[in-house]
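FORM 12-B: Structure-to-Sequence Request
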């Protein structure tokens, strides 16, 4: 195995491949690795012209003829699920008359004629060899993935899983044994690859009961479709042990017309009510996603949806631009949707009848704004949320302020983001400055910079520990007293006291 990331210098891959002198290079192309992979394999082919190169993965679910004609260093492409067919292909490596006829294989022959063997689909999903004991399986990442289900009941036109019917599942007993294997390997975070964890309530109940057995050992990341959550599943989730689950709620849009135009089952009212209930129990972190560029989605509606999700208290809102993935209905019918998209990965939408390029650009900037001030346990999450809830114009004005200064085009440190928010509020929302100061001081930033200067030394607090020095900050939300340990260099308060206004 030669492995790396998109940031690995390609010379490293090339050096390793040349050392190994392989007969075959087989690699998987994914949306964000595709370009890098092509850079690497084209160079290897130049050095090792006899090496046969075959690529597979979700990038090749569409028409592969043009790709093969325009990438002459690639000998074959594989379309579909490889677990059953690819071992046969390797076994017959020296018998081209057999391997080239296997389902899923796409090739050009010596005369330049294209041969396409359709789509490979695993026939015995339940009996596939679990990957956990393979030397190719990595456990050194922040989390590992376990595929419990393949395919999805829903029909979202932009998603490859929507095309995959019927849904196939692994029995719960088998999942239990695999989880024990992972626990024994020291895994603590598992992303459950089940496209819609709550699609089948009976199975959802069984899996929740199984996950409970791993309380305190593993945290499970699951994807739910909140619009179809049944009351009985909500009851189960409300009672789940703290920290056992991390939930991704598939929203995409809160506009029912947009959802219907995208082939997605489930209405926004039900989704909002389910999220409201789940957030109220405060037992897990919950993220939601929105997709700019879906048919009939407008920028103003997108902004309204963001505000709605913020008001529901979601921990993260991931805003993405629609990607037209090979093999999806939306890609195949892009013209009838009036969608223009990038012909190269990641195939992002460039324009739709309801979102011209400038609106999509603004949505992208909005996504960066959310990442910087709302998502990822940002220090500025709390003041950002409060500002959005208290002021209907805040999101727009802050966004345009940052865009005008082109600040969202560059990486910004957390401290810089705090200063930007502070400076912006100094002009537009001066009464809110103490709240940003409170977040600034709690995060441990300098008391000598503008937000920190709002706090003043405080001596009147009963304090038995002479090493603790207190600062007082008065804010509309209450009084804060921050205690700093004089012996600790980094100025993060070791103690915070607060009284709320009467
Ligand atoms: S519900 Fe999710 S996984 Fe299923 S088709 Fe829609 S986007 Fe894909």
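FORM 12-B RESPONSE
SEQUENCE OUT:
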């Amino acid at each position: 195995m030669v492995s790396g990331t998109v940031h690995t210098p390609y010379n490293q891959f090339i050096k390793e491949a040349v050392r190994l002198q392989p007969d075959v290079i087989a690699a998987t192309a994914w949306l964000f690795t595709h370009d890098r992979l092509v850079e690497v394999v084209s160079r290897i082919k130049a050095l090792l012209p006899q090496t046969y190169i075959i690529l597979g993965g979700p990038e090749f679910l569409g028409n592969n003829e043009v790709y093969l004609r325009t990438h002459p260093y690639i000998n074959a492409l594989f379309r579909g699920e490889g677990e059953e067919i690819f071992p046969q292909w390797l076994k017959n490596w020296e018998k081209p008359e057999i391997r080239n006829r296997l389902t899923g294989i796409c090739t050009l022959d010596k005369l330049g004629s294209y041969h396409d063997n359709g789509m490979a689909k695993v026939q015995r999903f339940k009996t596939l060899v679990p990957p956990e004991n393979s030397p190719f399986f990595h456990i050194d990442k922040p989390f590992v993935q376990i595929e419990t289900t393949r395919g999805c009941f829903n029909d979202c036109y932009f998603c490859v899983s929507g095309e995959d019917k019927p849904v196939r599942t692994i029995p719960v007993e088998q999942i239990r044994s695999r989880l024990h294997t992972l626990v024994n390997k020291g895994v603590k975070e598992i992303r459950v690859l089940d496209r819609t964890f709550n699609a089948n309530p009976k199975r959802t109940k069984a899996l929740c009961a199984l996950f409970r057995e791993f309380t305190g050992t593993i945290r499970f990341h699951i994807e739910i479709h909140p619009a179809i959550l049944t009351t009985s599943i909500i009851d189960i989730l409300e009672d789940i042990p703290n920290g056992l689950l991390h939930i991704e709620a598939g929203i995409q849009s809160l506009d029912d017309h947009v959802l219907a135009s995208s082939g997605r089952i489930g209405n926004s009212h039900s989704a909002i009510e389910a999220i409201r209930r789940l957030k109220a129990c405060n037992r897990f972190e919950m993220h939601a996603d929105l997709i700019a560029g879906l048919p009939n989605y407008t920028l103003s509606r997108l902004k309204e949806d963001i505000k709605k999700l913020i008001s529901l208290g979601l921990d993260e809102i991931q805003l993405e631009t629609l990607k037209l993935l090979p093999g999806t209905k939306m890609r195949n019918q892009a013209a009838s949707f009036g969608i223009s998209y990038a012909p190269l990965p990641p195939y992002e939408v460039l324009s739709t009848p309801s979102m011209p390029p400038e609106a999509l650009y603004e949505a992208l900037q909005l996504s960066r704004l959310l990442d910087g001030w709302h998502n990822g346990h940002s220090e500025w999450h709390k003041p950002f949320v409060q500002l959005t809830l208290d002021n209907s114009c805040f999101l727009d004005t802050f966004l345009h302020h940052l865009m005008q200064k082109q600040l969202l085009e560059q990486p910004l440190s957390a401290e810089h983001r705090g200063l930007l928010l502070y400076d912006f509020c100094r002009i537009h929302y001066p009464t809110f400055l103490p709240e940003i100061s409170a977040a600034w001081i709690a995060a441990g930033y300098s008391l000598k910079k503008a937000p920190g200067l709002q706090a003043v030394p405080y001596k009147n607090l009963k304090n038995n520990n002479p090493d603790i020095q207190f600062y007082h900050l008065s804010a509309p939300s209450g009084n804060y007293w921050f205690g700093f340990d004089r012996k600790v260099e980094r100025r993060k308060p070791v103690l915070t006291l607060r009284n709320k206004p009467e």
